[in-house]
Amino acid sequence: MKTIASFRRALKRRERGQVLIIFVLLIVPVSLVMGVVAVDASMWQSERRGAQKDADLSALAGALELLAPTPAVAAAQTVTASYAATNDESKSASIFGGVKVDTSCFNGSRPDSVAVDIKHATRLFFGDVFGLPVPEPGAHARACAGSVVELKGIMPVGLPICSDPLDPNCPNSRTLCWSPDSNNDGLPEPLYGKRCDLSVFDKVSGEASWLDLDGSSPLPLPPTTGCWKSGGGASELSNEIKAGGANTLCHIAPSGYTAAQCAGATIPPVNWCVKSKTGAQPNVVMGAFNTLFSTEGACDITNPRDGIDDFAGAMKLLSGTAGTESAFYGEICHSPRLITVIVVDHFDASGNGFMPIRAFASFFVEACTVTNNAGVATEYPKCNPNGSIGHATFTGRFVNVLAEGTVGAWTNWSPKRILLDQ
After folding, report:
1. How far is CA 238 from the centre of its chain?
2. Which residues sit opposite 152 in a β-bridge?
3. What is the DSSP string of 45-100?
4. Cα–Cα distance between 393 and 198 in angstroms, integer?
5. Which of 93, 102, 203, 286 is most open to solvent, judged by the fewest CB atoms within 10 Å of its CB?
6. Percent of the chain residues topping a pLDDT of 70
7. In this predicted model, what pLDDT tens digit does every residue of 146-173 receive, in sequence order?
8. Cβ of 404: how many Cβ atoms within 10 Å?
9. What DSSP string runs through 346-368?
10. How many domains does the chain have?
């Protein structure tokens, strides 16, 4: 009996040893396969991220070409492909299916979308030992190019313009800020970067186009943030200018929306329309701009320094020709002199009239210019004239720039934006 018991114990020990050997023979290959697959999968994921980055940046580079007054489809395709090739340091990226440029972002008549698919060639470190196929990680990107249609931080300044700048009733009939309407949108074409004078006095209504803006509380209609309000006094106007813009959200009105619709609605669309403000004295407005400009100096490049921000120190021409609608600028130094105003038509009547918002405009104020009764104009870079002010204008330059905000269909006036959509 003792011999049989000893034999059984020895047999069990041998069985345990065999199980261990079988376990090792199974787990080692499985672990090896899992390890090599993990290494290859990690590389594939890295290439996938690289392909997405290349696609995103290439699409954005191409979309930038669609911001010109006349979008160049061929140029957008060429720049997209060139950017993808230039940034392909590993020489593993390729575009498949071509670069697609169309109107699919905002469904208008103007090209506004650049779409591209990029794949990265890769290899297997270990997977080919197990007969795994070689993947080609790829990514898709689409970038949209348009104008900013909704903004905050807007100056309570309405710029009344007309399609024919030579119209004697046009408030800026002698300005050199824009040329006649050439794209049939009812607005003249701004001459970006050209020094000129802007008047906010509307000859038709007799109104100075200071605006009642408000964003202090939600209003009960969608969108829930208001743009205009009633009853704001001169002190509110002054405070909004000193702050660099009103804390309000305004949106460009739909095409064809009229002043009568603004005024006739029970509650006009809260961020499509603006109201003119009565009782604002030029001295108060100039004083507010003087306070706003007290924070400047970072963009002063004159020699010797005078503490006044210079246009050439704040803005850089990136493309196009200065003084034309094709000029495009980049902000190289932040200056309080770069403001955003609201473009409107003539106010139809004096006394808190309504107007739909046609566009936004970026303007670099170089001086406040005051014309006395004798017709002599004097520029005040700090907007600090002495004594009573008669007719005042802003002297400066429109700039076509990129800006943050809700993007929509392209207009020649409003700041531009490109963004990734897919």
Report:
1. 27
2. 249
3. HHHHHHHHHHHHHHHHHHHHGGGSSS--HHHHHHHHHHHHHHT-TTS-EEE-S--E
4. 5
5. 102
6. 71
7. 999 998 889 988 887 765 656 666 655 4
8. 12
9. --SSSSS-EEE--EEEEEEEEEE
10. 2
Asked if residue 12 belongs to a domain, the reply is no
In a shared domain, residues 175 and 257: yes
* Closest-CA residue to 247 (of 239, 259, 256): 239
Q: Where are the beta strands (DSSP E) in 156-298?
A: 158-160, 178-179, 189-190, 196-199, 211-212, 246-251, 273-276
Same domain membership, residue 203 and residue 82: no
Place of tokens 């689409």: 142
How large a percentage of the chain has pLDDT more than 90? Answer: 28
Pick from 197, 200, 196, 164: which is nearest to 342 by CA?
A: 200
What are the tens digits of pLDDT across the range 8-51? 555 455 555 555 565 555 565 655 555 556 655 666 676 778 88
Q: What is the DSSP string of 399-419?
A: ---B--SEEES--SSS-EEEE
Answer whether 229's CB lies under 8 Å from 214's CB: yes
DSSP state of 140: E
Q: Are residues 214 and 287 in the same domain?
A: yes
Residue 359: beta bridge partners?
Answer: 343
Q: What is the pLDDT of residue 388?
A: 59
| Domain, as residue range, for 416 | 149-420
Residue carrying structure tokens 């911001």 = 67
What interhelical angle do 234-242 and 282-292 show, nearest 10?
Answer: 20
Residue whose structure tokens are 């017709």: 375
pTM of the model: 0.81
Q: Which of 136, 159, 182 is the last residue before a domain boundary? A: 136
Give 28's Cβ-side CA count (13 Å radius).
6
DSSP string covering 266-283, please?
Answer: SS--TTTEEEE-SS--HH
Alpha-carbon distance of 36 to 39, in angstroms, equals 5
